[in-house]
């Protein structure tokens, strides 16, 4: 059972890693002027909710399967994702707003955020991998 | 001139070229060459008087850059420009002749002969023989120019010129600053061996006459210390001579002088010379960099940035600009003439080519070298632009290849350096580029091999006719679509009548050509289209009631060619106001109507003008009232953010299809401008707001709408525009303010651009600028004119880099800083809250003044010490806090507040400052003393008073100029004389409550008042309405509200504010 939990987490984590990389690539495309702000933001906004759900599911799963440490590790990031989504002003077109993204260094902070998440997910990936192997062996 | 002569080339180095440039410039196609010259003589004199400038030098500037407002002609047309260009007499000669005065040379027909004169010449030129030439000769020379001359009536010219610094001279270029600049150096051919011989002597003879010798271009440029009349030891004789000459001119009045003095930095002690740097590695030639030793005649140094420090050492000696002011002791800091922007501390040859500060302005005219230094100064670094301002004169270049840097795509500009005849170095990215073959030929002078004298290199503001590479599609025709709200509420206000009437009156004046298209849509709960197909006897109305899925019936007949269907259009405009008088439909389906209009226009792009009178209630984009009247006064919990993203999305769609939406909101009720405004904000439109508009009950708004609509319909317009702002490597732009959509990092998408829109950007220093002395900024606006031409308007600004905090403070431009802070505060109130924004404004003052106190002032004196450049900073910030956008405590309607914020973001700096801190004049005792003379008109120049009730008196009349409105407040005991001679009334009681005009009476008092008011109006493109206010008038509250130095129930007085700041600063 434990193994199944971690295998699922591992897959989910892989998806999140890919998503982070996709965010980084898209944002840097915008930075280099390969795409315009409008298409960049609509591409990214599409994935904000899947990312939020994907991450929340893992966190909840960890809570349910009583892996406290991993749950607490995931909690801040999951909270941030949800907070960010909820706090979007009513007039904005999503977390990434094409009219704002070039202002006040938002592009850079989005980029930084995506980088940090990538690092975090990589860390989680190895933790899940280790836990999964451990679980498989114990079985 | 940034480009130093090629070392190898025979041409004189920088000094030379500069001159040449000047020459070219003057000669420039820019039509008025000749005219100017005529005026110049007079002007020169003026300047001399004040600035001790050399006469000769003057011409450069003026011809090329000055715009003469009076002339009224717009030489704008490309063709014209061209023609003129061709006509120019070959001036080529100057190449060698680096003379100082070369400026004039261009104008002279003769110059060609000189060209051969190589470096050596200069000395000769100086000879008395030349200089003595009487002014007359000068003028004669002009005639040769032929056609060009004719353009301006001389008298007119005088005025504007004199005003160099003046506000009035809107059109003038920065060059104004130049006058001073020019003098200074001998920069002439000096580059070469020529180091100029003893100039001083030379000048004496020559100088007085002012005018440059016709035949020979004078080589020398005088060095007068610019404004530093104070010290100039070296050329005493010179200046005196000048002064004499000047005297007559005084009448022309140039308020400026004193001002300019203030800004000038002290010059160096004699002994410095300005050598022309061989092409310097940095790309910046002359300025401060080189002061080689050698026998130099001139003492006054150009103010290189570096010099400042030296000069700073003895602060006490310094002229105004370096003074430290204790604001608590000196209360009368507001100058009595309009505040002038500081002149960048650049070598005059560069400065005279610099962009006009009205078009392009930086908050810090001395750019800090590193971000750390900038952070220390706590002042915002940013640019304020007014790129599409109406210019009376603008050089237009038609050329099949537009020379640009190959790596950063910067347009060639006056601040690039020419390494040799064939290569130039970009001043933004420092790449070395080739000069294309075609660029070697100068159409102005018809000389080959002088790329550095092409107009592109002689003008910081220039317009290119873009070849087909600059088009993604064939230039679009002008398309105008009008969308009218015709619900019951709209019909009640009666706006349709006046709008349709204005449209009818201005139908022929709409900018456009034979391709112009026009269309109309009206809406209430349904959408009505009007088929104006040719051949119909009357317009056909099509009603679409399915607002959930809007489609366009017969799209081809809804937008029609204005010329072909003019009668139908006129017929429609005549009947439209009557068509809905019986309508009882109260719903408003604005969202679907906008969608329909967007669909209709998307194939072409163009301008959509929307009139709305209430909150949209139907279909997509319906809004709910959010204002809670009881909470108006508190700064918290007010809805400044849009409630839906519908309008933003639609605006971005519009932007993508090159459609701009201009919104006219005429509403008595809350209409959620915060949401509606997005439609204009992101599609680069503009917002107009007329609260409580009613055709009978509110005549003031009716007149305002009428005047603004007239301007709106007839002003220039650019379609499918994009603007890019580039800056020197090391600087980067991180935030943009204004109405547009930032499509990619530095590309602003402007479906329409209009001459009344201003923009601002904030910058940061990304990499240290230690290895460069100058930085440049370039804005390039690519647009399709209403005639279907693709054009690029390029402005380039060049500023020095400094390394000490004190210099950063010295170069602060307080108006630009306040303007940028206002923009930032609007953002802050939207993203955070209004009270946050207010705190941020106050903190901006406190932080920068504390930084000044702790880092620059060595001895801690009591009081509130501020650098002279920032002496008005607290006042302007206080004025901002009391502005509608940011004020608290009063009952400002939410829509009005948001409209004020839109205005902050979209107005050019000049008008923003006027609305924030209006000018107050006393007008009941106007006299001709110090008056301006323009075209035989005498325009009195009353001093500007501080905005405090203590300056008002019951027995006077005061005029407040708040940009878009003029308010004339008449005191209760106002002299009978004024009442009867100016207002044409018997007594105070017979002044009507609402009055918006002054009678033209046949009395000198009336003539003066009217002359002054119309002069104020002439200086701006729109028509400010004049309100005559007496004690009981409803407008009185508005008038008093602008008294920003006084205490109000919820805001501090100026003095209290200063005390507050002092407390914070001294903490």
UniProtKB/TrEMBL annotation, chain A:
UniProt keyword annotations, A-Z: Membrane, Transmembrane, Transmembrane helix
InterPro entries recorded: Cornichon
A single Gene Ontology CC term: membrane
Pfam families (alphabetical): Cornichon
Bilayer disposition of the protein: Multi-pass membrane protein
Localization per record: Membrane
Name recorded for this polypeptide: Protein cornichon homolog 4 isoform X1
Organism: Octodon degus
Automatic annotation (TrEMBL), chain B:
Coiled-coil segments on the chain, per record: none
Record GO terms (molecular function): SNARE binding; zinc ion binding
Domain Sec23/Sec24 beta-sandwich per the UniProt entry, residue ranges: 718-802
InterPro entries the UniProt entry points to: ADF-H/Gelsolin-like_dom_sf, Beta-sandwich_Sec23_24, Gelsolin-like_dom, Gelsolin-like_dom_sf, Sec23/24_helical_dom, Sec23/24_helical_dom_sf, Sec23/24_trunk_dom, SEC23_SEC24_subfamily
Ranges where the Gelsolin-like domain occurs: 939-1013
A single cellular component GO annotation: COPII vesicle coat
Residue ranges, compositional bias (Polar residues): 138-150, 159-187, 232-259
Entry keyword set: Cytoplasm, Cytoplasmic vesicle, Endoplasmic reticulum, ER-Golgi transport, Membrane, Metal-binding, Protein transport, Transport, Zinc
Topology term for the membrane: Peripheral membrane protein
Sec23/Sec24 helical domain mapped to chain residues: 813-913
Gene3D superfamilies per record: beta-sandwich domain of Sec23/24, Sec23/Sec24 helical domain, Severin, von Willebrand factor, type A domain, Zn-finger domain of Sec23/24
Biased composition (Pro residues): 195-216
Compartments (UniProt record): Cytoplasm, Cytosol; Cytoplasmic vesicle, COPII-coated vesicle membrane; Endoplasmic reticulum membrane
Family to which the UniProt record says this protein belongs: Belongs to the SEC23/SEC24 family. SEC24 subfamily.
Record-given protein name: Protein transport protein Sec24A isoform X2
Species whose genome carries this gene: Octodon degus (Degu)
